[in-house]
Every structure is written in C-alpha cells, then in structure tokens.
Amino acid sequence: MIGRADPVRRFFEAMERRDWPAAGALLASDAEIWWPATDERFVGAAFVEMNRAYPEGWSIEVVETVGDGERVAARVRVTHGHDVVWCAGTYTVHDGVIAMGVEYWVTEGAEEPPEWRAEYSS
C-alpha cells in the first residue's frame, strides 16, 4: 500500500531529477499551491513550469514527509549556490495526487534574531 505522504515525496524527488512529466503527473490538473510570503498561487501545470524555469544550480533534499489521512506535511531543503532554503509545506492528497498545498519558504540564516533571545539560543 502506498502511504499518503508518498506523492509529495515523489513530487520533490521528480523535481530533483528534473523529470517534469513525472512531477506533473503527481499534481491534480487543478491543484493550487499557495506561497503566503508572496501571496502567489500556482494552479496545475503552471506550478511545474514555474519550477522548471527557476534558474539552474539547485538541489532538493526531502528531509521528511508525514501523512495523516489526506493531509501531508513536508520539510524540504534546497541548496542553490551558497544559499540554503527551507520549505515547510502542507498538502492535501486525493487519489494519489497533490490537490492543494501551502508552502512557506525561508532562507537559512537570512534574518537576525532579536537581541532579547540571545540568552536562550545557541
């Protein structure tokens, strides 16, 4: 039996291989992926095409996926040159394909923590 998290993991793995047809096959034709930080919404094949157009030189590592029913959470590390970018995403999977997703992207170390927290962190 295929786990609920498998389509999400396989989607990111297909993107790492630059296997765009395989990535597209793991998205519902009307799948909507939302990036709240920029308030962009990508629907269906446009999401794959946007990723395909992204400037080359990146690699993707799926750190973890966790599924619970139709809901899947993923933590993904993307390295692009000297930058490390993290995606924390939640997805809805129907019939073995991603139907909806919300992805939060952050660049590792890009923000300075407030001084008041210094005594609590290492």
SSE order? HHEEHEEEE
| Share of residues in helices | 10-25%
The profile of the biggest β sheet is: 6 strands, mixed
State the CATH architecture. Roll
End-to-end Cα distance, whole Å, is 42 Å
| Gross morphology | globular
Total DSSP E strands: 6
Number of domains: 1
Strand order of the largest sheet: 2-1-6-5-4-3
| Spans of at least 5 consecutive residues with low confidence | none
Describe this structure in words.
The chain has helices at 6-17, 20-25, 45-53, and strands spanning 27-35, 40-43, 58-68, 71-80, 83-94, 97-107. It is of the alpha+beta class. It is globular. It has a six-stranded mixed sheet with strand order 2-1-6-5-4-3. The protein has one domain (6-108): Nuclear Transport Factor 2, Chain: A. The protein is built from three helices and six strands.
